[in-house]
Amino acid sequence: MQYPKKKTKGKMYRKVMILFIISLTSCMLVVSPSLYKCKKTEESDAINCDDVSDDDTIQKLAKAEEQNSKLKCLSKVLTELPIQKGKDKGTNLPAVFPHHGDAGHWQVWNRALDKRFKGLKALDRLVTSGNTCSVWEVGANVAAQDSKDLMALYGTCKYHAFEPVPDFNKKLEENWKDENQMTVHKFGIGGKDQIFGVSRNALKGNDGDATFLDDSNKQAGEVKIHIKSFDYVLEKTDGIPSMVEMNCEGCEWNFLMEALKHGWIKKVPIVQIGWHSYGDVGIGLRAMQLCDIRVLLSETHVMDYGLAFGWERWSLKE
């Protein structure tokens, strides 16, 4: 969603050094003497392990390089954190708001909106060549606005809007009832089929405009949320989509890790994510999780642009 211009209370601040020390401690590289069998080449910082036959050494080196990638990611992410002090509107007590809508981060979020639908080379190639293309919008809410904007540019693609909240998906279905290129799915997507209950209070999100389910699925509630497995959705739709567009107010944390574990998302030409820092786990751990996901995505994709807890896009390596 796009946030209206508004004045935010309090001053922006970042506990970068504290979070950085915590993250640095958790990502310390433990390098055994056997790793020195691998030598850096003179031309670059690349590590040459052609002469290494010790499987254990190679595994340790791979782990060290993975941790180093996470550390580099964290050093960047921790300078971009959207945090602001303020007053909790329910109790008027001091609070910290980590979400872009509350923290004055909405300006950056809004500026990134224009980037989302430019430079979509994979869709351009598919449309130009006359091949089938499909877009999944995960967290479509009541309007599937991203699909509407994309449809204006790529009208021949098939669109699938996923929204598990009954009050939202009823309106969504009504809004798209006359569009043959769109299929509305009244469920969310995940690693396995499941049904859980959430309270209506948990669905209020940002003044009732957002859907947040990530932590709320730990508790019972009167609103039933249906999740269908990746395998089910891939079979019932067009298979691997050409693009996944995510703005699901917190579901991305579980969704992406489960999708990476499953493997299907590693074949998607375009993955576009709107990050959120909601949740009881806290923004520090969210920063580390974001880097875990980025490192895994970087194995198969290249980041086109990105901002921590804003928007970012990944394109499949050619």
From TrEMBL:
<dbReference type="InterPro" id="IPR006342">
    <property type="entry name" value="FkbM_mtfrase"/>
</dbReference>
<feature type="domain" description="Methyltransferase FkbM">
    <location>
        <begin position="138"/>
        <end position="271"/>
    </location>
</feature>
<dbReference type="InterPro" id="IPR029063">
    <property type="entry name" value="SAM-dependent_MTases_sf"/>
</dbReference>
<protein>
    <recommendedName>
        <fullName>Methyltransferase FkbM domain-containing protein</fullName>
    </recommendedName>
</protein>
<dbReference type="Pfam" id="PF05050">
    <property type="entry name" value="Methyltransf_21"/>
</dbReference>
